[in-house]
Amino acid sequence: MNRNTRSRAAGLSAVCAAVGITSALTQAAQGASLSTDLVINGGFESVNAGTTAGYSATEVNGGWFDFAGGSVFAYNYAQNYDDRDDLGTVPPGNDGSSATNYYFTFNTNDTAAIQNIDLSTGDTAAAILAGTGQYDIRGFFTNYADDLELGRLTLEFYDGDPGVDGFGATLVGSAINFDVTNSEEWEQVGGTGAIDSTAQWARIIVDHNTASGSSSGPDVYADNITFQVNVVPEPSSSLLALAGASLIVLRRRRH
């Protein structure tokens, strides 16, 4: 192979590699990936420090919106508003004395923080359509001092984009609620479950559980909200063989 041929081959290889990389990036951008946190700004760290609205708080950017059209706000841990009586711990990845680590607060209004997630394309869509999609949602909650309010993490599935008000599509099944029980420390709530094969969008709601009472305003705080779609693991061939052998032994004993 002469120098010109080698040069052309090298150039062609580089082009192919670039095309492959571009194709992979395009594919990744076109659909939500499995076993990947799909929440944008789930730690509420993307904030606009210039917006205070009269409070020692900062407006949160990215991912989250307020159903009533207001602002979603965050406090920093250095302010010590969050209730951590005995253990004094904060959600993983945060510093309890940090002025640059933030968490969500309802202090400015009594409306939920909401995020819609598109599951209609990519690996998630394939798994859900095949009936093997499983959700995993988690979140940390606490409140202010000795207030009565407790948080609630809600997950909903829709057959299309639910929009801002949730009426842009049809709710699939029922809302799944995870209620906070500990008002004295940061508590993680959440869980896993099967996703209906008709679901195309997920809607995450960070809210105040009104059944828990109220003390001069819904001072519910939340942080580290995560959501991902996994594939329900299929039983391995060895487990199936073992199950089959056990069934044969059981039948022989009965006879």
From TrEMBL:
Species for this entry: Oceaniferula spumae
Domain Ice-binding protein C-terminal: 232-254
Pfam families xref list: PEP-CTERM
Signal peptide: 1-28
NCBIfam families: PEP_CTERM
Keyword entries, A-Z: Signal
This protein's record includes keyword Transmembrane helix: no
Designated name of the protein: Ice-binding protein C-terminal domain-containing protein
